[in-house]
């Protein structure tokens, strides 16, 4: 399984379901070549997906990580889980944004609460090599992959791409002091 | 590394069932075959391609719907590919990705294929983000190589390949210090017309230019006298690839072929020369960047960033030069940071000056002979207009950034 890097905001906007939950059980069911893992979860909070599935009880993922199956610890951590809904079941995997809740930054938590949602009309354009340009008003350049610190980087951890006055989408960090290197990096 | 399974044989067949529409067929096939070779280079595995019938490992491209795979793909982005583990053998690529080879655009087929073949051979994901088996693809790398964790993983499954390959041992190996064979020196270069092997801002602010078996200092009053390289740095050969002095450590490093020499002033450090094991041989240029106190090594279109005092993880290198140094040519013949704090690159008869953001400044490239060596253009045998030497008619206008340096050697 190989994933392309995805900014948490993109992951949020492209998911049917975004929840905070604790994993309380795990079962292997026979489905597909290696089977499917079904995690039983206790949902703590829902950020997205009220219309698709207001209460999530089970999460499905491939049993093998070579097929993008996701390993979660039972009865240990709270997780932020994102995924899609097929046939009334929530599926997730390695390429979805899944993180231990205590590993999320303050900006990411704020993003989940409202900022990412505000930015779903903006487009986060991944930048793998230079030069790269925005081609329309609604694009933010995501340059974490170019940085020496790699992925996930500053823009993943601390920024949301939000439409500002004048209709332009740009990176937004909120109250926190702006990070000079990122301001430079977003300038095409 | 993580192990998920193992084939009970070491000779495996593979078959390419279909190809992406984004690449010429022979390019796509070559990329997929290379993916197998990346593994057979380091483990005692052999792979044989078959055109028909059953095969151990089967590669194919499918999309959001598939008649043969229950685990469908998700359109462009997110999941790029997936694979079975031994002894099943399916390797599937998302046909909606923009598969490419040899470019930074799109998704590199060879690297992703090597990752998925890694799964098909029994490897899980690596916790090192720079390993091939890391789950997230972080972009094209022109000089892609397996990470030590990838090699350790495949060798844990199938054993080592004999004979043991180079680049495996982590430490630089010592070479017997053989004094250079005194050979006939190459002809004396002409500082005014010669292309350069290396340039270095050395100790005490002196600028050295290297060509063939000779070195000279560069200052406002023109090029100094030519010395044999070995006359200044005993034990050092001519025709160097690169030279760099670090004010941080006082070390001068010279590079040639697959060897590196270290000097403090004109004295070779014990244990040198050593073999270059962790970066590629035959470098083009090297420089010290005072802003981050690192040494940069250049070859082709790539560079390595090296911290002299810390163990540097080179697995993410080489990186593309143009990713950091904007407007600089590939394969520079020399590079240095100079007294004015700026970075200079040299190639052929011209040079480039970079600003603090490492971007080539306006008006470059310029002529080395004119601005660095302060040579007057030949007035008789070159046409004054359209001549290829200097932009000015008089030949003595100085580049304003070049200031006085001494011309004599103190040793």
From TrEMBL, chain A:
Q: What residue stretches are annotated with the NTR domain?
A: 1-120
**Any one GO molecular function term:** metal ion binding
**UniProt binding sites for Zn(2+):** 1
Q: Does the keyword Acyltransferase apply?
A: no
Q: Which SUPFAM superfamilies match?
A: TIMP-like
- Domain of life of the organism in this record? Eukaryota
Q: Has keyword Secreted?
A: yes
Name the Pfam families on file: TIMP
Disulfide pairings: 1-68, 3-95, 13-120, 122-169, 127-132, 140-161
- What family is this protein classified in? Belongs to the protease inhibitor I35 (TIMP) family.
Kindly state the subunit structure of this protein. Interacts with EFEMP1. Interacts with KDR.
Protein name, as recorded: Metalloproteinase inhibitor 3
